[in-house]
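Blinded run. Sample ID left blank on purpose so nobody reads anything into the name before looking at the predicted structure. Input follows.
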Amino acid sequence: MAEIVLDKDELMKNGPAPADDRLNSIDPAAYVQQNESGSFLELAVFGARCAGCIGKIERGVKSLPGVKEARLNLSSGKLHIVWQGDLQPALITEKIAALGYRAVPFDPEAGEREQDQYGRKLLKSMAIAGFALANIMLLSVGVWASGDGEMGTATRGLMHWVSAIIAIPAVAYAGQPFFSSALRALKAGSANMDVPISLAVILAVVFSLFETFNHGPHAYFDAAVMLLFFLLIGRWLDHNLRNRARSAAKDLIALQSISANLLQSDGHVIAVQAKDITPGDRILLMPGDRVPVDSVIVEGRSDMDLSLLNGESAPALKQEGDLLHSGIVNISHKLVVEAKARLQESFVAELARLVEAGQQSKSKFVRLADKAAKLYVPVVHTLAAITFLGWYFILDGGLRIALMNAIAVLIITCPCAMGLATPAVQSVATGRLFKRGILVKSGDALERLAKITMVAFDKTGTLTLGKMRWINENEFTASEKEILAQLARASRHPIAKAILAACGAGPVANNAEEVAGMGIRGVVNGQDVRLGRADFANAENTNISDDYSISWLRIENQKPKALKFEDILRPDVRKVMDNLKRQGLKLMLLSGDREQAVKSVAEKAGIDVCYAGMTPEEKITRIEEASQQGEVVALVGDGLNDTPALAHAHVALSPGSAAEAAQSAADFVFQGQSLWPVSATYQIARQSRGRILENFSFSAFYNFVAAPLAMAGFVTPLIAALAMSGSSLIVILNALRIKSR
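Blinded prediction complete.
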């Protein structure tokens, strides 16, 4: 296995590379695992850039005998394959290599390194192309300015040779992202957008060398380098946006990468990795520990943070016999639990699988640029071929004229404007949003958001701030508040934090003791005092609205008094909901909280449709049901329990206070206590889609006018390059029209 890793790392040193014989020597058999569905394998695939790549790879792998499932996640590059029978794993990597891509056993860190290397490669290529272009243009200006006959043949030839010395190594280096991609496509028996780009650049350089050798009046090294420079700008912008899309599954898996306190039969406790726990092992959970695997309590009782399950900040009492899912946190007391499942079969692992399935469905979204690319390649090849054949055989222009006009067609129709149409708009839009505290994490997120018809919201931490507020503080005297504060200082419970937010710092009650799931008791000023549940405080009348969270204070033999708490709504919730409705969007509330609390928040926010007591799987089901009814759903959520649903929604938004895994699953992350960024992001998304469509329309019109002129021989390769760069500038200027209201 060590040799495989070394081979893999060596292969990844220079970013995406064409398949070769060394690739096929990597046999992933050592990484194959078994489950009830059969054999399965996870590979990292490099070189996939779009939805078309995904479809080609998945169809190719599924064509192998026995393969039941093949899913490629574009953001993480992970290909999950399931098969039955005696299929040799090496055949899978060989098949992927034959399709023009590279596959190695999946390693998230290696994949991130490769993406970083590819981004740096694009940036270096762009810098070299820009530097070379600037210098070649200085020489070209001298040739242009001299006019016919004003510059001697020897001087002009020297200018062309110096241009060649600059251009050839620059093109050889800066063109690698296009040349390697085109070569992989041709080896696989297909053509992509990089094929005509590479052809245009290479022909322009070869033709210019031919003219230089023969003392011709014109060379077009500047056109070739200019073409690469503008295309690399678009390619780098696109890569930069795609690279922001991180895998939320990775953050969920990090929750499993923890140690646990294994309780041995002789009473000793040793630290072990969560992956080494087997069913039947006993684990000691201290306050603050996260449950490593699905377990059952065998000793003790304690308050547990179940926000991973239901998104709610209020703890729940768990005692002997209760099931604890992996990922939840022990808050107050020591517990002994017995493992009931292995790490890979526990709750957090299942959440990670749900997230990856959701990201897979998102990655199949076909962007406008991908759709345009499918039309571009065959059309451009056909026009260039017609031009060459027409001038060579019909118009009898000779090889030089026919080739020059064909090159002009390839250059003038090169997809700089098309390639920049989406990235330029996305870059401007993301800049506008960033100034408003909104981070765009996914390259196609704005396109997806512009299409939504419904917005679903989580409650706690999304519509609310996820903080408890003591709302009847004025019903308590100063001495009662001091007693409450001294008791609250002995606890980390959210209700205790809400009391302290109102009362501030000070001493702790004497003999203070927190009773798991019940409350806190202690002595203040010689009096026995209690704060907690109604039965703990001996409260008789507990008929209080379910709109609030209730706690009770009892001082000695005095009548208990109720403390009322509620989660704080974000300040502009109603205004935002009304604005979204005015824009024609439907609203829905999905929460794991109790029904009365959910209805109360929905009413205050102005949301007509709400669902309570929902698990992560039920949230996914509700979103899928809405999708089946024709709705395009955006989800706004913040909790770990929202992460799978965020991944399954058509587009996802998350506040900056959200759990890290939720932010990773989201396409947009917004800062601050306001909910207005949700409305602002939707408005800019609609503007962005309009600008993208305008750019594509302009690109189509430009090609409709420019291509016939080039085919008719009215355009030289240099003029074609200038026209192409001019169209790119128009696209960029149009993108700058996006306004942030």
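Unblinding after everyone has recorded impressions. The CA atoms of residues 125 and 424 lie 19 Å apart.
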